[in-house]
Amino acid sequence: MIVNRPRCMIQCGEVLPIITSPQNCIAPTTALRIAAPYAPYLAVLAGMYLLHSAWAAVLLYHLGMALVLFLDRGWREARKPGAGRQPLNLIATSLFGLCGGALLYFLWPLLGLPRGFGASLAGFGITPAAWPLFIAYFCAVNPWLEEVYWRGYLGDPSVRLIPNDFLFAGYHVLVLASFLRRPWLIAMLAGLIAAGWVWRQQARRTGGLLAPMVSHFLADTSIFITVYLLAIRR
Fold it and tell me: Which of 39, 128, 143, 228 could bond 64 through an S-S bridge, CB–CB 3.0 to 4.6 Å?
């Protein structure tokens, strides 16, 4: 008996792994999956602009992702580490993640952040005393949950930029629009689109989410520690 095995993408004779579905390259489209990329925008708008609370924005965002994953059975993606344990791959993905904090550190004097930036953050509930707790929670939960959501549940095997790469980056603009000037917002948006694309390619090539999770964790951690040291501790 001949068994036909599904294949997704062949490059130089190699079958590249996928993470979205064991049978197909792209998971079946559902109404929930179509709406899912827009959930972060609702969470940020409600948390930052209605409730004026960064905590509310983050918690609403995380709860929204968790609910979508539960309703559409997307949690299975969390059990796919893939081939991301390879030492060279982990080194490369770690360096890429750390670039986020390093770039922020060196570009900080050029950003033109408003005076009293730390006080502005305190107005959204991130007081100096709350910063360590906020960093610990955000960096422990957000990278893992976002990768399961954006690169797992909403993953796509395409090597090209896709709409979800832009939608992943776009909601960050709502968070930082009150603090950054337009040129820096555009630069940040471009950088986040690139990061989303790179993490999606890591997931595609390794067949799982470990590599992008590690990279995302180091990016978030290095960025938040840099902000804490330069804006809060000073």
Answer: 39
